[in-house]
Amino acid sequence: MSLPAIDGGRVRLRERRKGKTRKGRRRFSPRWRELYKARIDAMLAPFREKKIPVVWVGLPSVRGPKSTSDMQYLNELYRGRAEKAGIIYIDTWDGFV
Length: 97
Hints:
Radius of gyration: 14 Å
Number of helices: 4
């Protein structure tokens, strides 16, 4: 019996505060969104190929309206990619607000 892999999204808070990634792309721009979705898909691919069960736990709420908005945006991306990959996504948001 194999145990599920559990992963959650990671946000580089320093980049989020600057509004740009290390490569200078505007955070949350349409181009950034497409590149980030591809990164998520690439991260999930090895699990799918080896048929390893995955449970994706969403980001919790954080303090401040901008940070809250960013976390909600990222959770939408994570949920969508998880559903597309056929893995379980656990929304923790309501448990924290």
